[in-house]
Design a protein that fits this description.
Length: 262
């Protein structure tokens, strides 16, 4: 499908192997500024990815959760956007819902992406305009057209809480730690939508966003705006990823939320 995609698949699968090995050897865990955890496995996977990918594509920029941001990335036409372990808490607790999420961004838009779940043996992949796959087989978002009884990856306490101008109907709500994995599952029709009404960094949503869109889902912030990547602050206002018929229904309920509050 694409030389970049082949490179990302190879890199993601090896980084997943490194992460599994690091956990088996015993993790060292630290707290990052803000309190979120980072493990020796995150750092080992990031070190491998940075060396492997940048050697293969020295002219590409670099943006990773576990590397200090370099504004020089904005001068590059293409950029690696990397989350070496998305879902670190699941990884620490030996739960399967963590992934290696890799994306090549070209002029603000994803070009190729991989979301690899090592503990599940699942590799989602996509190239812009060429569809998306799970372990080599094409995937497709669901055709669900009503929120009632839809399967949604979201915080139940948030959606079931008071204060919504238009209350949410009864839905089947679940959680998965990795944001990229949530989006890939929506693209594959495993869930009908994923909603996260808080700021999301580019490395959280770039890879999963392309996979979801190439599977036929719609991805935006809660105001309905498409994500744009490789900006001075590499962050999105929020995430709504949904089957095509559900996306406008979710946006309608979320629209009253000011963008600054998401």
């Amino acid at each position: 499908m694409s030389p970049d995609l082949d490179l990302l698949i190879e890199a993601a699968q090896e980084a997943g192997r490194i992460a599994l090995e690091a956990r088996a050897d015993g993790l060292k865990i630290e707290a990052k500024p803000g309190g979120s955890p980072v493990t020796s496995g995150d750092l080992a996977a990031n070190a491998f990815l940075q060396g492997f990918l940048r050697k293969a594509r020295p002219d590409y920029g670099w943006l990773s959760e576990e590397t200090a941001d370099d504004p020089a990335r904005m001068e590059r036409e293409r950029l690696f956007v990397v989350d070496p372990i998305d879902g670190t808490v699941a990884y620490m607790k030996n739960r399967p819902w963590w992934t290696v999420a890799l994306c090549v961004v070209n002029q603000e838009q994803p070009l190729a992406a991989v979301v690899h779940a090592p503990a599940l043996g699942e590799t989602f992949a996509a190239v812009a305009g060429q569809g998306a796959t799970l372990n080599g087989r094409p995937i497709q978002a669901s055709d669900v057209d009503a929120l009632e009884d839809a399967s949604v990856l979201a915080d139940a306490a948030l959606l079931e809480g008071p204060g919504w101008a238009e209350p949410w109907p009864a839905m089947r709500l679940e959680r998965r730690n990795s944001i990229a994995y949530r989006m890939a599952l929506v693209g594959a029709g495993g869930f009908d939508a994923a909603i996260a009404l808080g700021h999301k960094w580019d490395w959280d949503v770039a890879a999963g966003g392309l996979i979801a869109c190439e599977g036929g889902a719609v991805v935006s912030d809660h105001a309905g705006r498409p994500h744009r990547f490789n900006q001075p602050i590499p962050r999105q206002a929020s995430l709504v990823c949904a089957a095509p018929a559900l996306h406008p229904l979710i946006i309608r309920r979320c629209a009253p939320i000011p963008l600054g509050d998401a």
